[in-house]
Design brief:
With 293 residues, the chain is an alpha/beta fold. It has twelve helices and eight strands. It is 46% helix and 13% strand. Strand 3, helix 3 and strand 4 form a beta-alpha-beta unit.
Amino acid sequence: MYKNFRGAGVALITPFLEDLQIDYPALGRLVEYQIENHMDFLVVLGTTAETATLSAAEKQSLIDFVINKTAGRLPIIVGVGGNSTSEVLEQLKSLNLKKADGILSVVPYYNKPSQEGIYQHFMAIAAASPVPVVLYNVPGRTSVSMSAETTLRLAHDAKNIVGTKEASGNFGEIIKILKGKPDHFNVISGDDNLVVPITSIGGEGVISVAANLFPRLIASMTHYAMNGDFGNAAAIQQELQPIIEDLFAEGNPSGIKAAMHSAGMTENRVRLPLVPVSEKLYGELAEKTKRLL
């Protein structure tokens, strides 16, 4: 993976107003908050952005807004994925990615493709992408996991496939990837609660949900771990663990949006089929957020 995709990355939420239109002023403040608190790169249109609920026009608008707001201060990765290879290729043609630094593309969901199907899907994307490609393995959402063998095959066969966001939680497979990967390919944690363990075995950081609200803590933890200071990194990981569990207890991004609302950062709005968290969980998130900020 290119050097500027290492470290602490954030999967940005899409803030919504009461009428569920995009809250661009809140998004602008969020981008500045990430930059001020030492994040290394931004991810636009990830799972946490509720991308599945966004129109094509909204997607392009979000890409343009974040790129313009960031103004080159941090690298930007754009989520471009789906379960129809031809539609993903069409997105790569239709989206303006000229100022993006890379794309993040998820393993195809619902179809349950074979490993060969996954390989061919990503090779087609690599051939069409105007920017480097980061794979995204998240079997909890896709129902199929990309094997270490397939990941390594892609890493060796396509030089512009530069890394993977690993959210499988399967350390045996992650170790195989780390052992067999080429030098240009990095492994990034897709789980906030596994940043330190994955970095300790050779990973190169995280794409974080919790960083929307706690960028300084996530950045410090990640940077400590990447510099071999696992004592300080582990202390932050342990401090964050209770709220990380709550952030995902009733779904993402419902949890992070509730916590951010309690801190006065955004409206507590998600688009159906997601709904806001329960009052009980909101209270727990608000209490833990207050202690950490």
